Amino acid sequence: MVQTVSTSAAPRAALVLGATGGVGGAIAAQLIRDGWQVRALCREADLATSRWRHACAAPHFVTGDAMDRAAVVRAATFGDGVAVIVHAVNPPGYRNWSSLVLPMIDNTLAAARAAGGARIVLPGTVYNYDPAHTPVIDETTPQNARTRKGQIRVALERKLAEAEVPSLILRAGDFFGPAAGASWFAQAMVKPGQPVQSFTSMAREVPHAYAYLPDLAAAFAGLLAIPERLRPHEKVQFAGQWDATGTQMRDAVRRVVGKDVPERAFPWWMMRLAAPFGGFPREALEIEPVWKHPMRLDNRRLVELLGTEPHTPLDNAVAATLAGMGCIARTPHAADLALA
Question: Which residue intervals define the domain NAD(P)-binding in the entry (predicted)?
Fold first, then answer.
């Protein structure tokens, strides 16, 4: 039986784990703009507050670690408690998934129970599926992960589905946005901190799903605004920016910067050579099939709930992203987009 949130918990209070990251920060910012009380657990609260980049008040940062169950429970139950816990934490650089991912969700589950049945909110991934045999994903698609990371994510979602507290999984493609530093866009496709000189394609002319973080955050907030319409364990797909040709993201970057920057291929061959030595190349190589095979997210359930999916035109989203990365000048228009 799914536990309903205690009536003593603040109905629009949320705890965000991972608010110093791209997706967690975007969700926290959107909830704050929508009038939620947001607290955020992080390792250094003062530093996180000083580095808050979004165009809204910072959340109430409290010091703690997502691997420390007592700290997560304290953050979720302090005062009147919270109705929602956003679980947006992942090991950095794809490292240590096997030892960190599942213990972290166990801590979040413990905190949700202690808070009287808070709904756990999870940004879902496409790693749960075999890219070669899953061209379209909806909430009924069997999870047939072939990689270690994917199997861990499947186990994580199974824990949520079997828990007695409610959950919401909103699955999306590759993140990009003005504050999405830990993304393929910012770490591989375009070099941050300088004018755009080239665009690195992860897989030329292969369709791919991207998620602009402000749009994704708006979808999360919209769903959390209608808890009475959500299933106890709701799974929703975010269509995002579907690059149907595998060239639309490149072309948008070219339009925004106003020049035909050269396209380069990501050196997967180099990852394969270095993978036996471990580290990032080995971890990243597991993700290669996600880029080499199209996987589109079917958002019919999201549209059923919200009426429409939040969607920024691609060129505007790319302009805001490049401005946030320091690749183009922060014109008033670009700055407004970057901080939205």
Answer: 18-135
